[in-house]
Write a structure and sequence with these properties.
- By secondary structure, this protein is mainly α.
- The chain is built from 11 helices and 5 strands; from the N terminus they run H-H-E-H-H-E-E-H-H-H-H-H-H-E-H-E.
- It has helices spanning about 20-25, 30-50, 65-80, 85-100, 125-140, 145-160, 190-205, 210-220, 225-230, 235-245, 260-270; strands at about 60, 110, 115-120, 250-255, 275-280.
- Strands 1-2-3 form a 3-stranded antiparallel beta sheet. A two-stranded parallel ribbon has the order 4-5.
- A hairpin with a 3-residue loop joins strand 2 (about 110) and strand 3 (about 115-120).
- The relative contact order is 0.08.
Length: about 300
């Protein structure tokens, strides 16, 4: 892309418009020769660039953002059947629960290599991580993720509950003039809207309607705002749909490694369905997920 006259306002912006193999073939140059030229050029460019001050880079890990990434990775692994995405999700969840959860069950806000975790977690840290853990449970059906999600939800209720919905700061946060409550969804969903969403999902899985009561009370305070400014309340509208039309609950009894169970899971999980929760247990198991209680396989076959 480099020319005498420049490729952008008289200057040359370096980029790679074609693959190196294609460039070498076009100019009838052995690829190995061109690869060496390219390597030499990159070394000289790097040496010149290293004389400049490097851009500053924010190295801290933010709990809430990782919760969102966890949910995306787990869902992508499930729908696209990608083991690499699943590995990323598992490692991320383990990191969050090991490095960013304190011994008493609270979450920290940030982590940095060499400095560890610090700062009290905010509402969005709890709600977004719960969303990620529930997504990972429904991809792997490993109880540890569901158990951690429920524990964090109970801690969130204990420490952040407001008369309707939640505060953004915990009850033992540093004293402020007033406890903030950011209710609008922006580039990142508000902690309150995600809290309502995950509580409705937990209510379906646990058959504990105290979760859904809290969520519906929070949603009720904002219904007029949803109607007037829907683009400012995207995650709230997702929660509102779950509350208004209900969560589709699927209990699956079967060996997850069996071909027939896998076929059923592909049907259950293959389409985008944000109103759906899925729980699974093997025949003869009795897991502490209330949605699975009293469910048995029919004629020894995987049963939904």
């Amino acid at each position: 892309g480099v020319t005498q006259g420049g490729n952008f306002e008289g200057s040359n912006i370096l980029h790679t418009p074609v693959l190196p193999e294609q460039f070498a073939a076009k100019h009838r140059m052995p690829y190995e020769q061109f690869a060496q030229l390219l390597s030499d050029a990159k070394s000289r460019l790097f040496a010149a660039r290293s004389q400049r001050i490097r851009p500053a880079r924010d190295e801290k890990v933010i709990t809430a953002w990782n919760g969102l990434m966890l949910a995306a990775s787990a869902e992508a692994a499930r729908v696209l059947q990608r083991d690499d995405y699943l590995s990323i999700a598992r490692r991320n969840a383990s990191f969050l629960l090991w490095e960013l959860r304190a011994a008493d069950g609270r979450l920290w806000r940030t982590w940095k290599a060499g400095g560890g975790a610090r700062l009290n977690g905010y509402l969005e840290d709890y709600s977004h991580v719960i969303e990620g853990l529930l997504a990972l449970y429904q991809t792997t059906f490993e109880m540890r993720w569901f158990t951690a999600a429920r524990e964090l939800a109970d801690a969130m209720i204990d420490r952040f509950a407001a008369p309707a919905g939640f505060y953004d700061t915990s009850d033992d946060h540093e004293p402020l003039i007033t406890r903030p409550r950011d209710l609008q969804d922006n580039a990142i969903p508000a902690g309150n809207s995600m809290a309502a969403t995950v509580l409705l999902k937990l209510a379906a899985l646990t058959v504990d309607f105290s979760y859904s009561d809290l969520a519906e009370k929070a949603i009720g305070q904002l219904q007029h705002s949803f109607a007037k400014y829907p683009t400012a309340f995207g995650q709230w509208l997702t929660a509102h749909e779950l509350a208004a039309y209900g969560v589709t609950e699927i209990a699956l009894i079967g060996d997850p490694s069996a071909a027939m169970t896998q076929t059923m899971l592909q049907v259950i999980q293959g389409a985008y369905a944000p109103d759906r929760v899925v729980a699974l247990q093997r025949p003869g198991e009795h897991l502490p997920i209330e949605l699975l209680q009293g469910r048995e396989a029919v004629d020894g076959k995987p049963t939904a």
